[in-house]
Amino acid sequence: MNGENKQDTQVNTCSCGREHVAADIVRILAEMPPEEELYDLADFFKIFADCTRIRILCSLLYGEMCVSEIGDALDMTQSAISHQLRVLKQAKLVKNRREGKTIYYSLSDGHIISILSQGLEHIEE
After folding, report:
1. Strand runs (DSSP E) across the chain, as ranges?
2. CA distances from 18 to 13, 24, 34, 64 (A)
3. Structural domains of the chain ordered from first start
4. By the 8 A CB rule, do 65 and 103 touch?
5. CA–CA distance, 44 with 51 (Å, rounded to integer)
6. Residues whose CB falls within 8 Å of the CB of residue 55, separated by 6 or more in sequence, listed in order
7. 112 and 98 Cβ atoms separated by less than 8 Å
8. Which residues contact 59 (CB under 8 A, 6 or more apart)?
9. Cα torsion at 48, 51, 57, 60 (round to 10°)?
């Protein structure tokens, strides 16, 4: 014997027909992020579910822009851009800085670039 007590290892057969070791399921549940974090993660990904927001984020990959520049680049009204920027800012995906009367927007950090790049890479496979 390999030193393992077979009585200590509970094996269950699930509806798929595979055998599962109960200890593995307990370990998975113990290592899973807390439910509140999973809800936050789901909310985070919902932000990416809107094509206009994705277009704004992609335009900001090229650098800092004001609302009118983003609107011109995407052929959208400043009002529509401002609304989506507010959502993106609340989600901490974009940040802004004021210079006189003009507010300039940019991506919050490199994570956003990574998320967009990995998403594009995935759908292009």
Report:
1. 11-13, 19-21, 65-66, 94-99, 102-107
2. 6, 13, 27, 53
3. 6-34 (no CATH), 38-124 (1.10.10.10)
4. no
5. 15
6. 74
7. no
8. 65, 70, 73, 74
9. 180
Structure tokens at 81: 């851009």
| Cβ proximity of 19 and 12 under 8 Å | yes
Q: Are strands 94-99 and 102-107 parallel, antiparallel or unpaired?
A: antiparallel
Residue 102 to residue 17: CA distance in whole angstroms = 63
Measure the CA–CA gap between 105 and 35, rounded to whole angstroms.
32
Question: Tens-digit pLDDT profile for the chain (125 aa)?
Answer: 444 444 456 777 677 777 767 767 778 888 899 999 999 999 999 999 999 999 999 999 999 999 999 999 999 999 999 999 999 999 999 999 999 999 999 999 999 999 999 999 999 99
Burial degree of 96 (CB within 10 A; 0-12, 13-18, 19+): middle
